Structure formats: C-alpha cells, structure tokens
Amino acid sequence: MAEYEDYEDNGFFNTSKGSSQDHENFLQFKKIFLPCMYLVVFVCGLLGNSLVLVISIFYQKLKTLTDVFLVNLPLADLVFVCTLPFWAYASMHEWIFGNFMCKTILGIYTMNFYTSMLILTCITVDRFLAVVQATKAYNQQAKWMTRGKIICLLIWVISLLLSLPQIIYGNVLYLDKVICGYHDDGISTVVLATQMTLGFFLPLLTMIVCYSVIIKTLLHARGFQKHRSLKIIFLVVAVFLLTQTPFNLVKLIRSTSWEYYAMTSYHYAITVTEAIAYLRACLNPLLYAFVGLKFRKNFLKLVKDIGCLPYLGVSYQWKSSEDTSKTLSASQNVEATSMFQL
Question: Which parts pass through the membrane (predicted)?
Fold first, then answer.
C-alpha cells in the first residue's frame, strides 16, 4: 500500500513555503481521493467476486480446470478488497486498529495480491493449452483437474510465504500521524523486487508469449467465435496493461533514486496509479467469468432462481449459442471456440 510508506513525514517538504503548501494540498487530496477509490473498489469487487464465487460453486460444480481457477481468483480478490476499508479509514484519519491487526491486514493484503496475480498467470496458460492443444487438453481433463487443485494450493502456500516479510516487519509507525507499515530499507527493496517480478513482469511475459501463440492459432481457424475470441484476448491484455503498468512504472522509477520521496508530484502519481491498479479486483470477474457463455447461462439461472428477473427465454438463446459452440469445438474449428467458451 502506497499510503503506509513514510511520506507522511513533513520533514521532506519543509524546504520552502511553497513546497510545504504543495504537500498540504497533496495530503488533502489523498484524504479524499483514496477513501473514495478504495470504497468503490471494495463495493464493486465485493459484489462481482461474490457473484462469481456463488455461481462457480453452486452452478458449475468445478467440472473443468478453468472452473478451479475461477473459484480461486475471485476468492483471492474478495479477501483482497476486504482489506481496503481499513486502508480507507487510515488514509482519512490514522491507523487505530493496533499492531496485531496491522500485521494481519498487511499479510492478508500481500498474500492475496500474489495469489491473484499468480492465478491470472495460470489462467493464461490454461487458455493457451485449451486453444493450442485442445484435443490433448480435453483427453487429459481429469488429470489436469487434479493438477489444477494442487497448483492452486501451492500458489496459496507460496503467497503466504512471500507475505511473511510484511507480517514479521509490519508495525504501527508514529510519524506525523499513526500509520501501519514497515520501515526497513533492505526488506523494502526485496519486497519491491518480488512484487515487480511476480505481480507484473511474470503475468505480462506469460500473456505476451501465450496470447501471441493463441492469436496465431485463431487466425488460422475458422468459425464465428474467432473474432470474438480475439477481442477478448486484446481486452484482457489491454486492461492488465492499463491498470498495472502505470503503478509498476512509478514504483520502478522511485527505486532508481531516493530524491523522488521529496517530490510532491511523485506522491500524486503513486497515489493515483495505485488506485487504478486496484481496479483489477473489480474487472477480473468481468474479464475471466462473464465473457464465458457457460457462466452467463448459469448467471441467468441464478437470477431466475432468486426471482429478480422474469424468465424471458434468454437462457434458451444462450443455450443455443453454447450448443453451437460445442458443435464447432467437435469439428476442425475447436481452437476457435475453446478460448471464448470458458
């Protein structure tokens, strides 16, 4: 969390009256902007990821490897967004939840950050296998289901281990106000390098390699789903780049020189880009669940079961589309539909 770094110390900004005033303006901006963004991400992420979890557990029954990932991804994002109200209150006032909660929230936040990013990487590889090696992946579906569950368990364990520095070194700090964070230059460097590698470069590299091969495969395929599949790929990559690149770029620039800590413009940049990066927790349900025909069909069943919407025969249309997709997937065009229909 950018707000738990030690830029609250006004000593950096007291070199002149102008810079001190700029810092005061920044603090006022942060006090309004961050809580609003955190609460928006919290509400949208809570609703979206809860919906995906309910449908995945009660309607899709974990029949495929994709279903396994689509349970763990919203679960990680859901726990992640549940930490945001704590940070929202702390950014408006100060940290009042004590040292134990500080360590706990830091650990939960970090663990689910890594879990979410690593599962996104696994989903990319899963789609690669589903499209490029469709027949082989289908024949080994049961084996991949078992492997997928083991992979998800390993991801959670690895993420917990990676979050240990925040748990161990996280403390309540007393600056110009009480904040929750950790202040250790050596640990901060290791944490930053790990977050950049596993939280940005690994998913990005995986997307570039896998989706490049997928696009090449789809371009040689025939079928009405091909162009929709390509649009989904570009949308997934674009959203990842637009939400994650600015924040990671700012952090990378910051790591080159400590002088940036004394620049008010830098703190504006990292505050805004951090909030944008957290939008992934809201957008993941849309990108990795609602684009699938099967998921949308089950969503309609849920809506019908709870009586929120009259049955208008829409599910029949989706069922027809799904049946058509299955027919194509049994033909030479299997790679054109596997990507779109999760």
Answer: 32-59, 68-88, 108-129, 150-169, 198-218, 230-247, 267-291
**Chain length of the chain:** 342
258-292: per-residue pLDDT in tens?
666 667 888 899 899 999 999 988 888 888 777 77
Report how far residue 150's alpha carbon sits from residue 55's, in angstroms, rounded to the nearest whole number: 22
pTM here is 0.78
* Residue whose entry in the numeric block shows the structure tokens 């996280």: 170
According to DSSP, the residues that pair with 179 across neighbouring strands are: 173
Cβ(97)–Cβ(180) below 8 Å: yes
User: In whole angstroms, how far apart are CA 35 and each of 10, 84, 85, 91, 275?
Assistant: 21, 9, 8, 7, 10
**What domains appear along the chain, each with residue ranges and CATH number?**
2-338 (1.20.1070.10)
The rounded mean pLDDT for the chain is: 78
Q: Hey, what's the torsion of the CAs at 33, 37, 43, 47, to 10 degrees? A: 170
Distance separating alpha carbons of residues 75 and 324, to the nearest angstrom: 31
* Residue type (1 letter), 11: G
Torsions phi, psi of 173, nearest 5? -110, 140
Q: What is the CA radius of gyration of the chain?
A: 22
Whole-angstrom Cα distance, residue 293 to residue 47?
20
- CA 149/CA 170 separation, integer angstroms: 31
